[in-house]
Amino acid sequence: MKFKFLSIISAGLILFASCQSKSQTETGTSKDSTEATAKTTENTATPVDISKIKVADAKTILSRKQVPILCYHQVRNWKPTDGKVGKDYIVEIQNFKDQMKMLADSGYHTILPNQLYAYLNTGAQLPSKPIMLTFDDTDMDQFTVVRPTLDKLGYKAVYFIMTVSIGRKGKFVDYMTKEQIKQLSDEGNVIGSHTYDHKNFKKYAGKDWEEQLDKPTKKLEEITGKKMTEFAYPFGLWNAEGIPELKKRGFLMAYQLSTKRDEKDPLFTIRRIIASGYWSPKTLSNSIKNSF
């Protein structure tokens, strides 16, 4: 492997800029709130058999109302060494809990990719106020902080794994182990691919398809025992030329960030917004409504 990528990872994987967004910022912190412990009353992340679903035409898919999808990275308290840009990608622990409580109190129900796939292609019914929660880059706090927080609410999520960092301990951040990734999968969450070492998808050529897609896919399938069908573009960057490569490998959907969806392949340019570390629960609520 290219050691320059490994050195970046071991130096802390400064992936605060790992996704690009024009997140609205808000100064100050949210009020402390009691963790919601009651399970949501509606079974939300329900397994759906999508094996016989025929892909709809792009016009039909684009005509359906978009489901809000949030993208998170690190969930930990800010440090003095965290820069202004970095804090956009770090949601502090209490703020994250408050954000999740806000979603639950507002009646949002989490869904998983197979439900979204069925809805976009067939119009299948979703629970009331559906939302998808996604977490990028394999950070350890997604297991130690995010997992128990979501569990108390009956929420499930999608974890996009960058395989180079599995089990690594960095200077700034630690990463989930194979066992933890499998546990998330076994507990009903979805594991998706986020490449080997976060290389820009728009620059793939030659062996990059094997290094960034084939090998990570195989590794994640070995860990979870499940087929990888979801992919998240590093930095949220994509190009139409690469989409056939994803289809060829059996991916069903791919997730970008907040740019316009592709008119020919909307399933491979699904929009997400980054939940900024500067946002209070109220700001997040407004951003969801304004963005989708």
How would you describe this structure in keywords?
292 residues, alpha/beta, TIM Barrel, 6-stranded parallel sheet, two-stranded parallel sheet, 10 helices, 10 strands, 11% strand, globular
Question: Topology of this protein?
Answer:
Layout: H1 3-10, H2 58-63, E1 69-72, E2 74-75, H3 84-87, E3 90-91, H4 93-105, E4 109-110, H5 113-122, E5 130-136, H6 141-153, E6 158-161, H7 178-186, E7 190-193, H8 208-224, E8 230-232, H9 243-248, E9 253-255, E10 273-274, H10 281-291
Parallel strand pairs: 1-5, 1-10, 2-3, 4-5, 5-6, 6-7, 8-9
Helix pairs in contact: 4-6, 4-10
GO molecular function: hydrolase activity, acting on carbon-nitrogen (but not peptide) bonds
Protein name: Polysaccharide deacetylase
Domain NodB homology: 129-292
Binned, the helix content reads 25-40%
**Main sheet overview:** 6 strands, parallel
CATH architect. name: Alpha-Beta Barrel
Radius of gyration: 18 Å
How far do the termini sit from each other?
39 Å
- Number of helical regions: 10
The pLDDT mean sits at: 89
Topology as a string of helices (H) and strands (E):
HHEEHEHEHEHEHEHEHEEH
Give start-end ranges of low-pLDDT stretches: 1-18, 20-41
CATH superfamily: Glycoside hydrolase/deacetylase
Q: Identify the CATH class.
A: Alpha Beta
Would you give the CATH topology? Answer: TIM Barrel
Based on Cα principal axes, name the global outline.
globular
Number of strands: 10
Secondary structure class reads alpha/beta
**Strand fraction:** 5-15%
How many domains make up the 3D coordinates?
A: 1
